[in-house]
Amino acid sequence: MSTVELADERAPAATRLGLHLALLQLVFSLLWTTYVIYLPKLAAQAGIAPSAVILILMLDQAIFTLSDTAMGIAADRLGRIAGRFGIFIALVTALSCCAFVALPFVAGSVRPAVFIALIAIWALTSSVLRAPPLTLLGRHAARPTVPFLTALVMLGYGVAGAVSPYLGVVMRDYDPRLPFIISSAVLLLTALGLSRIAQDGVLPAKQIVAAAAEPKPLRGLPLLFIGAMVILALGYQLHFSINSSAFYLRFAKPEDLPWLMPVFWIGFNLVLFPASVVVKHRGGLIVMGIAGLLGAIAIVIAELAGALTVLIVAQFIAGAAWGCMMMSAISAALAIGSTGAEGKVTGLVFSALALATFARIAAVAGGLQKLPDYAPLVQWAPVACWLVAGAGLLAMAAAGLQGRRASPP
Question: C or N: which end of the chain has fewer Cβ atoms within 10 Å?
Answer without folding.
Answer: C
